[in-house]
Amino acid sequence: MAGRVAPWSLRPAVPADADALAACLDAAYAQYAGRIADLPRMSDGCADDIAHRDVWVAKAAGRVVGGLVLARETGFVRLVNVAVHPDVRGTGLGRALLRLAEAEAQTLGYREMRLNTHVDMPENVRLYTRLGWQETGRQGITVSMTKRF
Q1: DSSP letter string over 93-115?
Q2: CA-to-CA distance for 85 and 23, rounded, in angstroms?
Q3: Per-residue pLDDT reduced to its tens digit, 27-48
Q4: Is 56 in contact with 97 (CB distance < 8 Å)?
Q5: Is 52 within 8 Å of 2 (Cβ atoms)?
Q6: 3-state secondary structure string across 7-49
Q7: Residue 131 in contact with residue 144, Cβ under 8 Å?
Q8: Each residue's pLDDT tens digit, 98-122
Q9: Contacts of 5 (CB under 8 A, 6+ apart)
Q10: Domains and CATH numbers, the chain
Q11: What are the DSSP calls for 58-69, one per residue?
Q12: Which whole number is the average pLDDT over 86-108?
């Protein structure tokens, strides 16, 4: 699908999206299961996230193919989760979700975002770095990153 016009649309999540978002997250993180033995189930709590956080879904052909979860914290917005279903990788959806996260943070008046990722997901660290995020520390399996604007 690389190089095609984006086959997805973005919108705020609603409670009815919880199961579909959970399935999307499971599919997106399945690629890491073989190399990260202690990978938590990233889809746990989707309904709670939709109820209490800022959550968006990407839909294509009537199904959820991506998701974004943000948490407003004192002085910054935390990027809790960003995920793209394997069927739409290479379409620019991941970058679009990250641009949406930044735009939303700025609209809410924040000037900083933070995230944590896993040390065994170096491709994610490289992507965030290319997009202007800075690594701020490592502790155990956690890589912490910040982006200011």
Answers
A1: HHHHHHHHHHHHHHHTT--EEEE
A2: 9
A3: 999 989 888 988 888 899 999 9
A4: yes
A5: no
A6: CCEEEECCHHHHHHHHHHHHHHHHHHCCCCCCCCCCCCCHHHH
A7: no
A8: 999 999 999 999 999 999 999 999 9
A9: none
A10: 9-148 (3.40.630.30)
A11: EEETTEEEEEEE
A12: 95
Tokens 């900083």 identify what position? 112
Are the C-beta atoms of 132 and 147 separated by less than 8 Å? yes
Q: Which residue has 């990250």 as its token pair?
A: 98
Q: Name the amino acid, one letter, at 25.
A: L
Sign of CA dihedral 88, 93, 98, 100: negative
Amino acid present at 124: N
In 3D space, the residue among 133, 68, 72 whose CA is nearest the CA of residue 105 turns out to be 72
Judging by DSSP bridges, how do beta strands 76-84 and 134-139 pair with one another?
unpaired
Residue 38 CA, chain-centre distance (Å), reads 19
